[in-house]
Amino acid sequence: MVNPQSKTLADDSETKKSNKISVVLLTQNPLKPMFQPPHKVMSSIPREISKEMIVVHYNSRKRTGDFDQALESTSADAEHADEKILHVRVEGEFVSGVMKGIELSVGKYILVMDADLPYSRDIIPELVSALIAEPNFIIVASRYVKDAHVQRIPFIQNAIGNVARVIARYGLKVKNVKDPTSACFAFSRDVVKDIKFEGKGKEALLEILVKVNTKNNNKNNNVAVKEIPINQHDTVITRKLDRNRIVNYSKDVWELYRYGTKSNLKNQRAKPEQRKSRSVTFLSKAGRFFTVGASGLVVNYAASFLISAIIPNIWYIHATLFGIILSITSNFILNKIWTFEDKNFSPRHFFKQYALFLALCTLGAVIQLSLVFVFVEYSHIEYAISLLLAVCIASLSNFLLNKKITFGEKIWE
To answer: Is residue 31 part of a domain?
Structure first.
């Protein structure tokens, strides 16, 4: 990200020496935010602190006519000549507005606030003071910590919000923040200097938390966060949680999950000792495993069916067992080389893996044989269909067990 002078944030020495606060105030309303007038937000910051404000009118593509006024104006309430209020419009969503505001800012510290939500201005001095005292922290105005007081919201909306928090905690491993979807937070410019925003929805804080953690390679220790309880004033005006918000959140979470996965794979490639069986994602490995399984399915099914058709009076269980044994070895070699990219072919390692693969395939064979027997004898399903169903079910169990036991990988990586 760059500032208006096109200097990279990492190399801007003047910014590093400054203690200026850049307030990025976001609103969807054309000229007047719903809750936080810019000059009042500015006046909430202690007078002794140098400050600027970028008011970002986001999602404005349908309201161009409302912004015919000059985009830049100096607040009459400013305490100093350099404390200006800059108005800009952005066609994208909240995250795009945050990105634009940060790019235009020059302060060492940045405070982001959604002016259309009922955050109390009383919390602004607390956010600023906490950030100056602990510049390596991300300071969050939180609805879920002790002493927080928030307006009542409908049960369904509250339940969806809790689900979103659980997804962030366990899906994206953001575990030390109780309110990862807050729209009021502050941070030092150094914290985000190497971060590129890519989201298109509302979750700017969540994106920062995930990407800072990934940048610092924090697998277990998340970025330091301090949450300050908010006190929302009672109001009858509240923003509804519409379908687009839910869809955008889902997209953001998926993109952030992919971002974290790609970054981990990149780091692993840089370390030779971690290269074993780590070059593809879980879904990719599943795809490869089942592609190999499809070839084994052809061998298994064709051999079993042909044997049962060619050899008179052969029991269908024997024919099925023959097809299973015939496909095991080819599946093992293909999975070792292609699916899990295991290049260790030393005899001891190879035969140990083959024995494990064979044992698990035997377990799968027991499952398959049992299912075929149950389908044919008790459900009276035609043998050809019973065989196909049983092979598919057994293949799924084979993948998960072999990934974990034979090739020593975590199931969900």
So the answer is: yes
Q: Name the token pair of 8.
A: 């990279």
Say how far residue 165 (Cα) sits from the centre of its chain. 12
- Name the pTM for this structure: 0.58
Phi first, then psi, for residue 190 (nearest 5°) are: -60, -25
Q: Which two tokens stand for residue 215?
A: 């940048």
CA-to-CA dists, residue 186 to 31, 88, 111, 128, 286, angstroms:
24, 20, 4, 7, 41
Domain-terminating residue out of 269, 303, 338: 269
Q: Residue 397: give the domain boundaries.
A: 276-406
CB neighbourhood size of 313 (10 A)? 4
Distance CA 308, CA 328 (A): 19
Q: Could you tell me which residues come within 8 angstroms of residue 84 by beta carbon, excluding any fewer than 6 positions away?
A: 52, 53, 72, 74, 75, 78
pLDDT at site 413: 64
Q: Which CATH number belongs to the domain containing residue 50 in this structure?
A: 3.90.550.10
Q: What is the DSSP code string of 5-66? A: T--BGGG-HHHHH--PEEEEEEESSSSS-SS--HHHHHHTS-TTS-EEEEEEEES-TT-GGG
23 and 82 both lie in a single domain = yes
For residue 149, give the DSSP letter: B
3-state secondary structure of 268: helix
Counting the structural domains of the chain, the total is: 2
Domain membership flag for residue 236? yes
Of 304, 282, 312, the closest CA to residue 390 belongs to 304
Whether 156 is covered by a domain: the verdict is yes
Closest CA to 24 of 51, 1, 61: 51
Rounded to 5 degrees, φ, ψ at 186 are -140, 155
| Chain segment 345-370, per-residue pLDDT in tens | 888 888 899 899 989 888 888 888 88
3-state DSSP call for residue 184? strand
The token pair at 106 is 């020059």
The answer to whether residues 171 and 43 belong to one domain is yes
| Concatenated DSSP letters of 273-298 | GG-TT-SS-HHHHHHHHHHHHHHHHH
Q: Are 63 and 83 in contact (CB under 8 A)?
A: no
Q: Render pLDDT for 140-196 as a digit per residue (tens, 0 to 9).
A: 999 888 888 877 776 666 777 777 888 888 778 888 889 998 999 999 988 887 777
**3-class secondary structure, 372:** helix
